Amino acid sequence: MEEKISLAIVRSYFKKLENNLAVDVAIVGAGPSGLVAARDLALAGLKVAVFESKLAPGGGTWGGGMLMNEVVVQNDGAEILHEFGITTQSIDCEYHTVDSVEMASGLIFGARKAGAVIFNAVKVEDIVIHDGIVCGVVINSNPVLHMGLHVDPIVIMARAVLDGTGHPSEIISKAVNKAGIKIDSPTGGILGEKPMWMEDGERTTVENTKRLYPGLYASGMAANNVQGGFRMGPIFGGMFKSGRKVAKIIAEDLRIKK
Ligand code: 48H
Question: Which ligand 1 atom sits nearest the alpha carbon of residue 242?
Fold first, then answer.
């Protein structure tokens, strides 16, 4: 029995990993924008792998506002949640509250059930660029990185790479600071997130969501950090709409490339 269980896990895991060594879209970060994008792209028939450095995917959704585990969404954000089967409670004609645990688990389940594969506790530590096109991510075990062990990573090739890493926009930072590329922003670099302004932040999160360089995209707070958008606190409609927008852009770009 012991050997059988271990063999089942080893075989099943390595089959999953082998199937995802080359994907259409590599999404870095399983936050709300990345998970909405993952579901939409998988439903569009693309092969999607999500890499999440933490053990639990879901990003900054679990803790609500200041650990009060409720968040707020606007009507159009609630419509996206309803597609995942997540329940919202309307508070007036414009806003809803959502149980953040139901929201986090529902987003993860929805992305997975649509066909996106999620690799948790896996950190993207670098990107691959060939001839001016981002074409892959460099991954490592996050516990290995936490322990500071000198272990070489492996590579996942991808036709599109989405930075959904939230506030630090880790992947775009690598592209700008390490690869030295100029991205589609007013300065060609990262402008940095501005302080709190909910209304403006929600609007610009969606506006700031775009392709930044051939093969490289940003969504959610990463997109905001890149273009100098305001933060918005525990309201999430902009994150979902950003995920939806970037999925549409990527799907269109990949169809053209095919
Ligand atoms: C693998 C990584 C890596 C890496 C980070 O922050 P997130 O929830 O992402 P978004 O942008 O979809 O949502 C933002 C939202 O949660 C938020 O923070 C809001 C609305 N803030 C407003 C405010 O005012 O503060 O998730 C990003 C995920 C996390 O789970 C990270 O662990 C993960 O990305 N991640 N995964 N490799 N290099 N870096």
Answer: 12
